[in-house]
Each structure stands twice: as structure tokens, then as C-alpha cells.
Design a protein that fits this description.
By secondary structure, this protein is an all-beta fold. It has strands at residues 7-11, 23-26, 35-44, 47-54, 62-67, 72-79, 84-92, 98-105, 113-119, 125-132, 141-146, 152-159, 167-174, 180-187, 194-199, 205-211, 222-228, 233-240, 245-251, 256-265, 270-279, 284-289, 296-306, 309-316, 329-335, 341-348, 352-360, 366-373, 383-389, 395-399, 405-407, 409-412, 419-423, 431-436, 442-447, 452-455, 463-471, 474-483. It has a 5-stranded antiparallel β-sheet with strand order 1-14-13-12-11, with no helix packed on it. A hairpin with a 5-residue loop joins strand 27 and strand 28 (366-373).
Length: 484
């Protein structure tokens, strides 16, 4: 266990005069805008509210409401005369109101403000408040919960200067009616992103999860800060020995919480993604790894409404480009409360998809807030794509078209000179892959010993082949593969 001295600034902050410049107005959607979903929640009656950020107009975040069929019900623009700002979190209070948490800068040289907006499910505004911070850059990250007093608790991270990496964390408590109780700034000079905050089971304080913590390097583990109920720092320890980055933290019962994240597993000699069932001492009880050797990233995060239906999402074939000239597939994995993989499916293959937010829903399924880029058209436009998935992995609604393929395996690249087969991590027992030529003759047969298997096809001529995949002698799929 490590301890670390933090510089703490504790402030009781009044509402900012900038509030008078913020407006909450109904908005007509421009379908040609490039929109990125930043947060989303379920609000009842199979309706969903989510926030988006426009690339063309970064100082105009929009909150939208849709039903389960993907039909837009209403849209609200948070109008501001000048500045750069966004909404990073949405949370529903116990009385059904919605609270959005974000940041804005009046100009590029000004300090960043935290703003909190409250409205009901019908988009009637309750209040908009803002609070100044000591940070010069826009906030890196934030998280929010409702504590045992029905108050809003927020945490986040920001950089103290426009240039450089001197950073700090903030924590705040506010009544859901808009009154500030406290806003504390911890300057540790070295830590990075703040990913999640949990209230302790006995309500005596909080656990806060961060990448880095005072002695930050690129391979630093994820740290868990322990705070008292007034956000005073108590001590710091490693959240999980395998994690460098925590995506999410959420209580799964009264004594255990679930962490999701990524890191390096030295035993497996691989960069892994995973979920970790952890007790209050920080000890990992169980885990489930997704150490895919291919380019799979779990950017969509992890969430659950029921503890026996946990959703962990990501994409395959990722690349760090805004408009990739390739396709990707979304990967959705459902896990039970013992972290066993119940099913895993792949969605897409017709365009490049990225998942920005995954929200588990009250029907046992989940909803994905995504972006889709049609690499074949190459029009430099990102389409906002909203997908409702039921508890069995079936796609109920795709708000916008076209439709995509859903499968429990991937045969790729197709067409290609080489061949890889990726199968669901829920499959157990023996899995085989067989390839046939145009006459129906079997030309290749291989047992798939791993979830991703590279198949040697050097002896095969260019042409069209058919394949069949069996798991425990049950056919799981078939199709065509083209060798170039």
C-alpha cells in the first residue's frame, strides 16, 4: 500500500455569473453535422437521453431523446454566446430528473468551468450552474454518482496549464436542487485521467480510480484513492495489478465492485482487456480476460443493469484515424455475475464503427451509442449510430440504416492473401474450420485452438472458397472466402 501527499484546495463555490449566458432551447437536428455521442442513459418508457458534441460547432452541445425504435422525440441545444464546452456525463436522480455534467472555457486563455445542468425527462429546465476551476485546459475526464444523501458527487481531472502535464483531480458534492456543498481540488502533479468514483458501502467516504498517481509513467498501474466523506485524501493503493487504465467502476453487490480496463499481463505476455471482481480491500476475486492478439480495443466500456447480464463492448480492426479507410466490427460480450462469458457476438463489417458509450437497459439488454464512417464513400462524414441489443444479442433497433451482419465468428481478411478466424469466447469444446474449393472438395481442415487462429493458406491458389465452422460437431456458420 502506498501513501502520497496531495496539495488540497477546498472551496465552497457560488454559482457563476456565466449562468446568465447559458440557454436551454429546443433544437432542430441538422443531419449533415458530424456528431459524437459523449454520454447516455435510460429514462423509462423505453426512452433514452444522450448528449452529443458537434465537430463543426464545438460550443453547442446537444441533448437528444429517442424511443426504443430510434425515433427522435426531442432535442435540446445548450446555447452559449462564446466558448468551448461539452457534456461528459449524464445521470438520473432518484426523483427522475436528469443531470448533465460538463465543462466550458469562455476563451482559450481563461480558466475552465465545470457546469451542471438539470432538467426533467420532458426536457423542462430546472437549472444551469457553473463553477470555476484552476485548470487552463478543458477537463480530461469526469464521473458522477448519487450518494446515500441523494446528492450529486462528481470527480474529474484537468491540467493546470495550457502547455505541460501538471495535473490535478477534483471532487465535488452538490444537492440535486443545484446548491453546492463542496468542491475540492487535489494537485498531485503527475497523475492522469480520473475514471470512476464509488461511495463506500458504509457511506464513510469514497474510492476514486485514476491512471497514474503522483509518480505517473506510461506503464503506471491504475490507482485507487481512498477519500473521506469530505474528499480529504486518506491513502492510495493499486486498484488492480494488471490494469494501467480503468474504464469503469461499479458496485455489483454490497461488498464487491466490478472494474473494467486494460493493461499488460506479464504472465500471458500480452496486452489485455478485462473485467475484475474486486472486494473493498482492493483484492481481485475473479477476472475475465479478453487478450485478443489482433487489433481489438474495448472502447465502449462496461455496464450492467442486472448483475447477471454484464456488457463489455469494443471494436476490432481499430486504427487511430478520424476517417479510417477500413471496416471494423463491434464486439459485444455478455458476462454473468461470476464473470463467465455467456455470449459474444460481432456486429458490422460494412463500415468503420466506434462505440463511444454502452448503457445496460432495464429489459436485460443494452444500447450502444456509436459512430459509423462509410470508408467506401469517403465523404469525411461521421454518422451517429444508435443500436439497441436484447439480452440474447439480437439487434432490436438500428437508428439509421443500413443494416449490418451479426455473427459469432469472423473470417478475415476477406478477400485476402492470408486467413484468420476469430470465434466467440463463449464457445467451449472443439471448434473446427474447413475450407472447400469450387467443386466442393475439402482442401483445408484445422482445429481452432485459440479464439483467434491464423490459418496457413500458402498452398492454395487464388479463387473463391467456401468454408464451414463446427463447434462440438454443431455447425456454427458457413460462407465464402476469396483468396487474392
Amino acid at each position: 500500500m502506498k501513501t502520497f501527499l496531495l496539495i488540497v484546495i477546498s472551496l465552497l463555490i457560488s454559482k457563476s455569473s456565466y449562468n446568465q449566458s447559458l440557454n436551454f432551447i429546443h433544437h432542430e437536428i441538422n443531419p449533415n453535422n458530424i456528431e459524437l455521442a459523449t454520454a447516455g442513459i435510460e429514462v423509462g418508457n423505453n426512452d433514452y437521453i444522450f448528449s452529443v458534441l458537434h465537430w463543426e460547432n464545438t460550443n453547442a452541445p446537444i441533448i437528444k431523446k429517442i424511443n426504443s425504435n430510434g425515433v427522435l422525440i426531442d432535442s435540446i441545444l445548450i446555447s452559449y454566446d462564446y466558448g468551448i464546452y461539452s457534456i461528459m456525463n449524464l445521470i438520473k436522480t432518484n426523483n427522475g430528473d436528469i443531470i448533465g455534467i460538463g465543462d466550458f472555457k469562455p476563451d482559450t486563455s481563461a480558466f475552465t468551468y465545470i457546469f451542471i445542468i438539470s432538467f426533467d425527462a420532458n426536457f423542462n429546465l430546472n437549472y444551469i450552474n457553473s463553477y470555476i476551476t484552476p485548470y487552463k485546459k478543458n477537463l480530461i475526464s469526469s464521473d458522477a454518482i448519487i450518494n446515500h444523501k441523494d446528492n450529486l458527487v462528481i470527480q474529474g481531472c484537468g491540467f493546470l496549464e495550457m502547455q505541460g502535464y501538471e495535473s490535478g483531480y477534483f471532487y465535488g458534492e452538490f444537492t440535486t436542487s443545484g446548491d453546492s456543498i463542496s468542491l475540492n481540488f487535489h494537485h498531485d502533479f503527475g497523475g492522469e485521467t480520473a475514471f470512476g468514483i464509488l461511495e463506500k458501502p458504509d457511506s464513510s467516504g469514497y474510492y476514486s480510480f485514476h491512471q497514474g498517481g503522483g509518480l505517473y509513467t506510461a506503464d503506471s498501474p491504475c490507482y485507487r484513492f481512498e477519500l473521506d466523506s469530505n474528499f480529504n485524501f486518506l491513502h492510495m493503493d493499486t486498484a488492480c495489478s494488471f490494469l494501467n487504465v480503468t474504464f469503469s467502476a461499479k458496485w455489483i453487490n454490497s461488498v464487491n465492485y466490478l472494474l473494467s480496463g486494460s493493461g499488460v499481463n506479464n504472465t500471458l505476455q500480452n496486452y489485455i482487456f478485462g473485467v475484475f471482481l474486486t472486494d473493498t480491500t482492493g483484492h481481485t476475486i475473479k477476472n475475465n480476460y479478453f487478450y485478443i492478439p489482433d487489433t481489438a480495443v474495448y472502447t465502449g466500456g462496461c455496464d450492467f443493469y442486472f448483475s447477471n447480464k454484464i456488457y463489455y463492448t469494443g471494436i476490432t480492426n481499430d486504427v487511430s484515424q478520424n476517417f479510417p479507410l477500413r471496416y471494423s466490427r463491434m464486439v459485444i460480450t455478455q458476462i454473468d455475475s461470476n464473470l463467465n462469458t455467456m455470449w459474444q457476438k460481432f456486429y458490422g463489417g460494412d463500415a468503420f464503427y466506434r462505440i463511444s458509450k454502452t448503457v445496460a437497459t432495464s429489459d436485460g439488454g443494452c444500447i450502444l451509442f456509436c459512430n459509423r464512417y462509410d470508408y467506401q464513400v469517403q465523404n469525411q462524414e461521421l454518422d451517429l449510430y444508435i443500436i439497441k441489443i436484447d439480452s440474447l444479442g439480437n439487434c432490436i433497433t438500428q437508428a439509421n440504416s443500413p443494416k449490418f451482419e451479426i455473427s459469432e465468428y469472423i473470417v478475415y481478411p476477406n478477400p485476402g492473401n492470408e486467413l484468420k478466424v476469430r470465434i466467440s469466447q463463449a464457445w467451449k469444446g472443439k471448434t473446427t474450420f474447413e475450407l472447400f474449393d469450387v467443386t466442393g472438395k475439402s482442401v483445408l481442415y484445422q482445429t481452432l485452438d485459440n479464439y483467434t487462429t491464423e490459418i496457413i493458406t500458402n498452398s492454395l491458389s487464388a479463387g473463391i472458397y467456401s468454408y464451414k465452422i463446427l463447434n462440438n460437431n454443431n455447425e456454427k456458420g458457413n460462407g465464402k472466402w476469396i483468396k487474392e
